[in-house]
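cron nightly-structures :: item 1 of 1
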Amino acid sequence: MSKSTPVSTFTLAGRPVSRMGYGAMQLVGPGVFGPPRDRAASIAVLREALALGVNHIDTSDYYGPYITNQLIREALHPYPDNLVIVTKVGAFRGKDGSWLPALEPEDLTRAVHDNLRNLGVQALDIVNLRSMGSVHAPAEGSLARQVAALAELQRQGLVRHIGLSNVTSAQVAEAQSIAEIVCVQNHYNLVHREDDALLDDLAAKGIAYVPFFPLGGFTPIQSSALSNVAQTIGATPMQVALAWLLHRAPNVLLIPGTASLDHLRENMQAAHCRLTPAVRAELDAIGRVNGTRAAAAG
């Protein structure tokens, strides 16, 4: 694994950001609920992320709830001029930690104001409208009212840019007829590739694609082929999985999350993994096998 390759950038909302970003979801308690076990450690991870070159942080006020944004403010405010903080609205947490939809225009307005307050900013860089769908998979249905509500908040100067999360291609097209969409954040990784066509379409349009669960989320990617590739090139399997995403398309922005300084540093090294065409073909085959199995199970 080479450590000399510079980390590439992509223009997000008119600003260059490192394609290796950071997702803040894991900074709070188990199940993304409640306070962290070690608040000082969470603060240290955020500060180290910026020291390592991260200038794109993904968050939401329903992580905790509220706690993640409060940690970001404590660790990083006043924010560097080049830092892009992307948050999400569209859900809230039940007292039992459940994930519940909050997609009425008044819910979105309240969520934007909560994010503004807890992050300590006058305007949010990017707000992703998070469709709940089936929690981690999208479901068809109009999002016009919700996008229009965010567009109104944008006109008021509270939201600079609008993105989408957990959405279908049809929903992206509908949203684009109402407002400019600068990014789409969907479930996608080495073995979960249902969004291939959407990703390519967004790449052609210069719109960022941000895969959530890039390492498999609550079920980490397991593959003997992935492990063999990693051993061959002197990297960890998770570094290779992240590197494959960076090679997949130039508009892919990564936001792997962790509450560990060691894992953060390990993840960041993925940007320096060089994958030859032969290695990429071997990794591509993992997704094809996984897709065939999923189709057979369906």
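cron nightly-structures :: done
Residues 277-297 form the longest helix (21 residues).
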